[in-house]
Amino acid sequence: MPRTAYDWISFTTDYGLDDGFVAACRGVIAQRATLVRVLDVSHAIPPQHVRHGSAVLAQTVPYLPEAVHLAVVDPGVGTSRLGVVVVTDRGLLVGPDNGLLLPAAEALGGVRAAYQLTEPRYRLRQVSATFHGRDIFAPAAAHLALGADPADFGEPVSDLVRLPEPKVLARPGQLVAEVLTIDRFGNVQLAATALDLDLAELSGFLVVRCGAHQLVVSRGRTFADLPPGEGVLFTDSADQLAVAVNGGSAAASLGLHTAWSARGTTPGPPNYSGGSASQVCTVTASPTAS
């Protein structure tokens, strides 16, 4: 496989910015790849929530320069889960094999090859059981950006862990969809698309129910299509259906939180994604439509 150097490393984690975790990883990269630039995607992925991190990464990488994409949302750190480098036509992905990387790989043209990260030359001399982002993934990303051959990092991986498909059920009069992400504005992104809404034969005023909470919405193109405080159901920038409140928070109105997860499926070792059950919303026609 020909060696290719990358000018960029993108970086996605659930580390937050309250501690020094992000800085430590960036420092490891800087010591090894001084001229490689790091582009931060997000460090605000809800803790341990692989589904959210996977969605954010997959929806972002098509708009980034060709790069080594370093992503760490890793509830199973220190367990039997593998660390991997995934080769695509438009860059490399580095991180845990727990379902986080595969959707992004598919967004970059599909998986060409994948390898375990086991070669001692490409990790820190001492490896903590709880901080593989710093000790394994960050140095691997730096060496790959400098042109190291992915095949030199370890044995090939034939079956990457895949998250279960998010729940979507469209039938006349009802659309049921799992929540993919909630952004900092409180917009709720669903796993469904506008096609699913059409299959459910829903239009006009609608009711979105999530657990014991509900919100009346109308279909719109953007937030300001409805008066302030009103709910809108629209197709977002990732072509997913999303629920918003003009000037407010749909997540708050629907009682939603970020404590959800999705567990990886076989083949592959167990995936430790943590968190609670996935959140699901139901969209139906409003009985008080006017």
UniProtKB/TrEMBL annotation:
Q: Which UniProt keywords apply?
A: Hydrolase, S-adenosyl-L-methionine
Which positions, given as ranges, span the membrane?
A: none
Record keyword Kinase present: no
InterPro entries given in the database record: SAM_HAT_C, SAM_HAT_N, SAM_OH_AdoTrfase, SAM_OH_AdoTrfase_C_sf, SAM_OH_AdoTrfase_N_sf
- Start and end of every S-adenosyl-l-methionine hydroxide adenosyltransferase C-terminal domain? 177-258
Q: Which GO terms describe its molecular function?
A: hydrolase activity
Annotated S-adenosyl-l-methionine hydroxide adenosyltransferase N-terminal domain residues: 9-154
- Family indicated by similarity: Belongs to the SAM hydrolase / SAM-dependent halogenase family.
Q: Quote the protein name from its UniProt record.
A: S-adenosylmethionine hydrolase
Species of origin: Amycolatopsis magusensis
Q: What is the lineage of its organism?
A: Bacteria, Bacillati, Actinomycetota, Actinomycetes, Pseudonocardiales
